[in-house]
Specification:
By secondary structure, the chain is of the alpha/beta class. The chain contains 17 helices and 20 strands. The strands form three sheets. Strands 1-2-3-4-7-8-9-10-12-14-15-16-17-18-19-20 form a 16-stranded mixed sheet. A two-stranded antiparallel ribbon has the order 5-6. Strands 11-13 form a two-stranded parallel ribbon. The longest helix is centred in the N-terminal third of the chain and has 20 residues.
Length: 523
């Protein structure tokens, strides 16, 4: 008789595509061929075609719930999965999770730990946590959760991980520790607390929220410290900078000597606590960081004070679209001169105008990218912006190049005339805007769908008569798989007709020739 495995593989794959997830899981332990085919079929069912480059959701189920055949079960069972290039796990905890069930992330993180453990290497890991705030854990559950989280993080480090991103929309362990304000309590009490806790932990200013229990914390294992290979790290979780996680975070940052750091945290309201976190962060990263990206930080002058202590920093990227001058209470510090060391700065234009109106010195600065966000409501005031740009040029001097970066997705009403090629009747701004020789435009891939959407790009070019080099950066829709794109010949012709001084056009870093065919050169 003909055996099942004598059937052509293509036919077996067609059969497996019709099997339910639980049936596919039953095929995992049969043999190597069916293990490969069944795990691949289950992964593709979850939208994963390449098991070495995958993103999946991981739910924390209630005790007693049957474990369903999710993407992680296929990754765990796949005998052929030994190395991974990229892994993103979105951990989702139900809102109704109770403290009597322990720390909500325990079970899924144990499973994820098993996957990382069986790999020989992994290049990049993204851990996204949606944690429930307000659960109070007793010492036993807290200790269990700390062990599980630190074991997972340490295991990731030992697998030659180059980039680690940790995103947490809540807090890992709730308010287990509370920052103790320096002025709270008597000076004698503060002195005693400092004397008893300074030597056993740098977190002596934090106390247990319930005023009792052991001072538990995550620690870096010797294997993690010995094998750390991190060069890039993103921290989007303030709780990583506070106990019980802070000991692991600052130790790992210092030991890894990372070159690229991304900070995206909701910083504490207490100035004393912010100062403590930033001072420890300086000690951990000042000997290695060359590229710093800052997102969602409201206290910009405090952050600039931190940045000024990074002597090796070459590139600073600030993404604070919601920031407004005057919201912060930091104006008492504006008389203190700040010296920054980077060569390249990128930030919203309004913030740059504010920053360079203060005592700010940047001796190595060579390029400033001014970011403008054009939305449905309208675009920036051209005359006011030109005046601010002129002041910025005077502040930084002639050796610093200013490059506009414009983010757009739609045509606001105020931009209709520009899209039709009609310049606004306000010649005051033209002198400043004509000085730009390089420009960057960013938006959705849909801008290339039709002449009606592509006219947004042409409309913006109407403002900049001196542009010689254009960079277009388009991102695909999340629902569409990214594919290589290039400008069509009519698009290149339309750009050249609008701005005849163009010498270079790049689309997603690929140079385009006059026929719209991508060349091999990149920028």
């Amino acid at each position: 008789m003909v055996g099942l495995l004598d059937i052509p593989v293509e036919i077996i794959q067609a059969i497996l595509a019709y099997l339910p997830a639980d049936s596919l899981r039953d095929l995992f332990p049969t043999c190597r061929l069916l293990n490969y085919l069944s795990t691949s079929a289950l992964l593709e069912h979850h939208g994963i075609r390449d098991p070495t480059n995958c993103t999946f959701d991981l739910y924390s189920r209630l005790p007693g719930d049957e474990l369903k055949a999710d993407a992680l079960s296929a990754l765990l069972a796949g005998l052929h999965i030994k190395q991974m290039k990229f892994l993103r796990c979105n951990l989702i905890i139900p809102w109704y999770w109770s403290s009597q069930w322990g720390w909500g992330a325990c079970r899924p993180l144990r499973r994820l730990h098993r996957l990382i453990q069986r790999l020989t290497s992994i290049n990049e890991v993204v851990l996204s946590f949606k944690m429930v705030i307000g659960i109070v854990l007793d010492d036993a559950y807290l200790m269990s959760g700390i062990d599980i989280l630190q074991n997972l993080l340490n295991m990731i480090i030992t697998k030659s991980c180059k980039a680690l991103r940790i995103i947490n929309t809540g807090t890992f362990f709730g308010k287990v520790y509370i920052f103790n304000q320096p002025d709270s309590g008597s000076s004698i009490t503060q002195g005693l607390r400092r004397f008893f806790h300074r030597n056993d932990s740098p977190d002596w200013q934090y106390k247990r929220g319930d005023s009792k229990g052991a001072r538990l914390s995550l620690t870096c294992s010797p294997a993690a410290l010995q094998n750390v290979a991190l060069t890039s790290m993103e921290i989007d979780a303030m709780s990583l900078f506070t106990p019980p996680c802070s000991n692991w975070t600052f130790t790992m940052l210092k030991q890894s000597r990372i070159k690229t750091l991304i900070l995206s945290s909701t910083w504490p309201k207490s100035g004393a606590e912010r100062s403590l976190v930033l001072s420890r962060l300086v000690v951990a990263v000042q000997a290695s960081v060359r590229t710093l990206s800052v997102v969602d930080v409201t206290h910009i002058l405090e952050i600039l004070g931190f940045i000024a202590q990074l002597p090796l920093l070459d590139t600073l990227d600030v993404n604070l679209w919601t920031w407004k001058a005057g919201v912060s209470d930091e104006f008492t510090t504006t008389s203190i001169p700040i010296v920054l060391n980077m060569k390249i700065m990128s930030a919203p234009a309004e913030m740059l105008f504010f920053m360079f109106s203060r005592p700010l010195t940047v001796p190595r600065l060579r390029e400033i990218f001014l970011a403008f966000n054009i939305n449905k409501e309208g675009m920036f005031n051209i005359t006011t912006t030109a005046t601010s740009i002129a002041r910025l040029r005077d502040s930084v001097g002639p050796n610093v190049a200013l490059i506009p970066m414009i983010y757009m997705d739609s045509v606001p009403p105020s931009m209709e005339s520009l899209c039709n090629g009609i310049q606004p009747i306000c010649p005051i701004w033209e002198q400043e805007f004509s000085k730009f020789t390089t420009m960057s435009l960013a938006g959705q891939m849909t801008l290339l769908d039709s002449p009606n959407t592509f006219r947004i790009i042409l409309g913006l070019l109407t403002l900049f008569s001196g542009i010689a080099e254009l960079h277009i950066r388009l991102r695909p829709s999340p629902e569409v798989e990214p594919t290589p794109i290039h400008l069509k010949p009519w698009m290149v012709k339309a750009i050249l007709n609008r701005s005849p001084k163009f010498t270079s056009i790049f689309l997603n870093q690929v140079a385009q020739n006059k026929n719209g065919v991508p060349t091999t050169s990149r920028c």
